[in-house]
TrEMBL record:
This is C-type cytochrome. GO terms for molecular function: electron transfer activity; heme binding; iron ion binding. Residues 1-21 are annotated as: Disordered. Keywords: Electron transport, Heme, Iron, Metal-binding, Transport. It comes from Mucilaginibacter myungsuensis. It comes from the Bacteria. Binds 1 heme c group covalently per subunit. Gene3D superfamilies: Cytochrome c-like domain. Heme c binds at residues 38, 42, 87.
């Protein structure tokens, strides 16, 4: 006899697992970056004034701690990690937007 197993196992996965960024945040971050001045100093895969986003993504895992650290760096500017050239501060960005930008950067392969 045919027995249908009506299992509905899939729970909706709303939140990205720890150490991962949600697709929505990554897409929003990419959009924010395209509207800011980031791309005058950063390219995806070549170092210009700032490091290539691909190199930044290779250096940092997208953990909440790294995202918070790098978002602070974007807001406040600074130097010494990739060289002596400083990144300008971006005081007009919100922390939330800076975090989305960083989540996008850390997703670049
Ligand atoms: C005036 C040029 C310039 C602009 C504009 C700029 N950056 Fe940078 N960025 C740099 C430089 C230079 C560094 C390397 C700083 C260092 O060595 O500590 C850097 C580093 C970074 C890092 C890595 C920081 C670290 O500590 O490893 C991230 C992430 C980053 N930038 C994101 C952004 C985002 C997002 C924007 C736009 C909101 C932006 N940058 C705009 C020049 C710039």
């Amino acid at each position: 006899m045919y027995t249908a197993s009506a299992q509905t196992k899939k729970a909706p996965a709303k939140k990205a697992p720890a150490g991962k960024s949600s697709a929505a945040d990554i897409a929003a971050g990419q959009d924010l970056i395209s509207k800011s001045d980031c791309l005058t100093c950063h390219k995806l895969d070549v170092k210009i004034i700032g490091p290539a986003y691909k190199d930044v993504a290779a250096k940092y895992k997208p953990t909440d701690a790294n995202v918070a650290l790098l978002a602070k760096k974007v807001l406040e500017g600074g130097s010494g990690v990739w060289g002596a050239v400083p990144m300008s501060a971006h005081p007009n960005l919100s922390t939330a937007d800076a975090k989305k930008m960083v989540r996008y950067i850390l997703s670049v392969k």
